[in-house]
Amino acid sequence: MRYLLLLLGVLVMAGCATNSAFIYKPAVPVTEGLKLPISLAVLPFMDGTEDFTKRGSIFNPESLYYNLAKANIGGQVTSLTPDLWAKAFADDMASSGDFRSVRFVYGQSELSDEDFYIEGTLKKATVTASWALPNEFALSLQALQRADKRLIWEKDVMYSGKNTPAMYDGCGATSIQCMQDRNHADVNRVMRGLFAEARADLMRTLAPRYGKKTGTNASSAGAPHTPQPQETVDEEIERILKGQ
């Protein structure tokens, strides 16, 4: 199974019916974490990715790239549009328990009593068809004070990492749904890591305003991009699939 996407394409063309709809699953909140007494809103993100949907050919996987911000991969995963990223970020922030409230809104006209609102640009959402090349995701975020639209925080977060055959161990050569589930779980892991880094930095910026101190154990926002050392990739994927 050298090239996963090529295999998936063959299985889909063979008529395998599967569910490829991607759903973001927020991380489990840390019950004793730091909580800031503020309300936040997240607006739809802008699309700053390159202007392509697919490059290369399935007959040459080393050259095949997909821009998930603009297109899906048939039979594997639906597109990760900028709006999906914004809604997922809002869900993740709300689930963290680090703030009084967080919600997604479609425009500034929907803002009400929020203290701050967050805007963002999806800079990259590229996946490849080769084990040798990395998948790359990048977000540029900023928070503004609702009262006067003053910029109070900016942060760029990015991820670059290669898929490995081990991620699909146990799925079997024809279990396309299993492969999809593992792939979706890994995308969830990556998004969680990006959101965690952004949330940690935002809290470090805002905490002093409210007499709070951040530290290594102050918030769930300090989670790294990758699973904790004591947890294997398979364990992380299984936990995400179970919605934990």
Characterization of this structure:
- This protein has 4 helices and 8 strands, in the order αββββαββββαα.
- It has 244 residues and is α/β, with parallel strands linked by helices.
- It is elongated and about 55 Å long.
- The model is unreliable at 1-15 and 216-233 (pLDDT under 50).
- It has one domain.
- It has helices at residues 4-13, 82-96, 176-206, 233-241; strands at residues 36-42, 46-47, 54-57, 60-67, 99-104, 116-128, 135-145, 150-161.
Question: Helix share of residues?
Answer: 25-40%
> Major sheet: size, sense and barrel closure?
8 strands, mixed
Q: Which stretches are poorly predicted, pLDDT < 50 over at least 5 residues?
A: 1-15, 216-233
Tell me what portion of residues adopts beta-strand conformation. 25-35%
Mean pLDDT: 81
For the termini, the CA-CA separation is 29 Å
Order of helices and strands: HEEEEHEEEEHH
Structural class, please?
A: alpha/beta
Task: Briefly characterize the structure.
This protein is of the alpha/beta class.
What's the topology here?
Elements: H1 4-13, E1 36-42, E2 46-47, E3 54-57, E4 60-67, H2 82-96, E5 99-104, E6 116-128, E7 135-145, E8 150-161, H3 176-206, H4 233-241
Parallel strand pairs: 1-5, 1-6, 2-6
Antiparallel strand pairs: 3-4, 4-6, 6-7, 7-8
